[in-house]
Predict the structure.
Amino acid sequence: MGCGSGRCLVRVPAVVVAAPASGSGKTTLATGLIGALRRAGHRVAPFKVGPDYIDPGYHGLAAGRPGRNLDPVLVGAERVVPLYQHGTQGCGLAVVEGVMGLFDGRIDENHSGPVAEGSTAQVASLLGAPVILVVDARGHSQSLAALLHGFATFDSGIRLGGVILNRVGSERHDQVLRAACARVGLPVLGSLPRMAELEVPSRHLGLIPAVEHGSAATAAVAAMTDLVAAHVDLAGIARLARSTAGGPAWDPEGGLGAAGGGGAVGAGPDRGWRRGGAGGVVIAMAGGPAFTFGYAEHRELLSAAGANVVVFDPLHEELPSGTAGLVLPGGFPEEHAADLAGNVGLLKAVGEQARLGLPIHAECAGLLYLTRSLDGHAMAGVVDADAEFGPRLTLGYRDAVALSDSVLWQAGQRVRGHEFHRTRLVAAGADAPAWGWHGNQGERVREGALVHQVHASYLHTHPAGNPAAVTRFVTAAAGYARIHAAT
């Protein structure tokens, strides 16, 4: 089938769940659709367009398998189809939830492509999959036909396969809207009544992660599944699903091989540690309610690079035995600051090990954990700054440059990342910054902290787009383990 050394998979059909704008109910519809299709006997692969960490948690509950992201900005458009192939392995159908409005993506005045980079439309085009448009029906009547006509004809490369009407007010309202859809030749695949009880609790960065929401998240997913199963044409959606995506699937070992050995700390990967599984160098990865932001491919790449990844909960657990590297991903530590501060033994151990040279990769929540304090609660004290909840949301993609060599990057390396936080650092000391970039007004930005073998930053990166950084980190951890095994 011409797939070379990569895994060549059957083309798994997909539908892309999009909307005219944010707040239309995409997550409710996509999550319920995943659950309802699974209940109907399909093995469903769930995806989310963009860098969002929260929605995939609900997708994963509904599908019974990890939710994954497809982000052309962070991983490159060329990796979207291979990552889709990887994520659909063993499945017969995929549901891809879009981001914001169908044609909304990265705001870049220099971009000349037909659709915005990172948009739902771009991902649908790359996958060759039909789009189902979810419309918030509140306030709509016959004029809905004009809106649908615009979305259906705006870009000839996007196929609008049908409409799901959400938050319909009455039977008469439903009839009027269906007539509007028929006027432009678009089938109605579902019509959902207004049901406020399905609203999932949210906070300043969006929905509360499923891990934090616990049994309530499971109940919410079940309710979404029931709603979609009762009001959506599941068989029609299954028939509509298509994908032209072909070729080899991404795989972690292949990703590391394509990255090459360049940029690794020291003389390159330590083959003595490239054993994977229980025999590999121990990389501790923070999890639990405070650290819920992460990509499934990160752990897969770490394992492929020879690490034994051990997930632990900093709220009440110690560093895993033999830890030679520490990953502190994003999340909501500000919601758990008192409990994190209460685990004094772990904070002390992290601080001591950092000063001894433990490689640490900290993003966003991880950065906050390493500061002196977070909203007045004592933290690990590795980064010379305090952190506090701020007055505004910082959000957007960044084209960053690594300012110095670190356990992840070489000086001068260009990396795309994403900021998503409402905290800020104050009373910062003299730690060397990790990143540099130019802001929206052209101003020079210096961000993050490099200290000892710690790389701490607000910037989220996608490991599948930067596999050499994973090799570099595991190599540094192997060196740390070797040195401390001899002492």
In short: The chain has 15 helices and 23 strands.
